[in-house]
Design goal:
This protein is mainly alpha-helical. About 65% of the residues lie in helices and about 5% in strands. A hairpin with a 7-residue loop joins strand 1 and strand 2. A two-stranded antiparallel ribbon has the order 1-2. Strands 3-4 form a two-stranded antiparallel sheet.
Length: about 325
């Protein structure tokens, strides 16, 4: 039997190859601009709600803009990078930046730990406890930050709070000390943030084939080993999303710190960058310095996100 191997020999003796069929081009009536037309409404909304305010924030940071300029008593003058120079030469700014980074890192790690642990727990309990835990978590997630902060202050109140009575701490004030105040705020931040991590990771775990988990259990792997060696690698794209979201949320915490420490604690010992920017912009009427702090925060978050994604791309992760 003769097998056609993609070429034929004509009568003249020369060998010719059969041409492969050309791939079909882009369907008619469809161009590269079509996807952008579908995205146009969302891009317009994002441009109005995000890009333009950032542009205005950056613009103000390059001018001298105080209460005198707002009231029209003095003209606005261009300062260039003068506001950034003044900001970087302030030792308090670096102290607040360090405190913000450490506090945000602690919140992110705690939120991920609690959220992932409860997500695994949801896969181990029956329907009724699972439903109760989901409803309780979603209730915490839906609670406004100012309401949750007020409730946590009442729970840890030195005179009437039940926590001090249960622990036998008497009239201990949790908001007086620097570390204890940060710890109290951390508890509230984790309480209102872990439901997002829990629900997202739980949805990812449910999408993992049951045969994979059963095989790991039959091989004698513990629950921790299953999470570390099986679930975590398979859920890494989801963990990337929740980590980046947690970093952004926790780095720009404002309401919890402002409400629970009464504007930043005693002598500003519990200041974070968002509260520090608020004090500069509205308490001191130095709007240009407050805008400069906002731009610095934006650049830090952008840099952290890009570096994190770059590290994952080097590890071969598809996001």
């Amino acid at each position: 039997m003769r097998v056609d191997r993609g070429w034929s020999r004509p009568r003249g003796g020369s060998r010719t190859f059969n041409k492969a069929p050309r791939p079909q081009g882009r369907p008619r009536g469809r161009s590269r601009t079509t996807p952008w037309l579908y995205l146009a409404p969302a891009l317009v909304v994002l441009g109005g709600l995000l890009v333009y305010p950032i542009y205005q924030l950056g613009l103000i940071s390059f001018f001298e803009y105080t209460q005198a300029q707002v009231s029209g008593g003095e003209p606005t003058t261009f300062q260039g990078f003068g506001n950034y120079s003044e900001l970087f030469s302030d030792s308090q700014f670096w102290q607040v930046l360090l405190a913000t980074v450490v506090f945000a890192a602690a919140c992110v790690v705690s939120t991920l730990a609690v959220g992932c642990a409860l997500a695994v727990l949801l896969t181990r309990v029956r329907a009724v406890p699972r439903l109760a835990l989901m409803l309780a978590a979603l209730g915490a997630w839906a609670t406004p930050a100012i309401t949750g902060s007020t409730v946590w202050l009442l729970l840890f109140d030195p005179d009437f709070g039940p926590v001090n009575r249960i622990l036998g701490l008497g009239d201990h004030s949790w908001t007086y000390g620097r570390l204890s105040a940060f710890f109290l705020v951390l508890l509230e931040v984790v309480w209102c943030s872990f439901p997002f991590v829990m629900v997202t990771v739980y949805a990812g775990i449910r999408s993992v084939p049951a045969e994979v988990l059963e095989a790991a259990a039959l091989d004698g792997a513990s629950q921790w080993r299953i999470w570390r060696s099986v679930l975590a690698p398979m859920l890494r794209p989801i963990l990337v999303v929740v980590t980046i979201q947690s970093v952004i949320w926790d780095f720009k915490v404002f309401t919890q710190i402002y409400v629970m420490t009464n504007g930043g604690g005693i002598a500003g010992q519990n200041l974070v960058l968002n509260v520090y920017a608020y004090q500069k912009a509205f308490a001191s009427s130095q709007y240009s310095l407050g805008s400069a702090i906002g731009i610095v925060m934006l650049l830090i978050l952008l840099a952290v996100t890009l570096v994190y994604l770059r590290l994952l791309r080097k590890q071969g992760e598809e996001l």
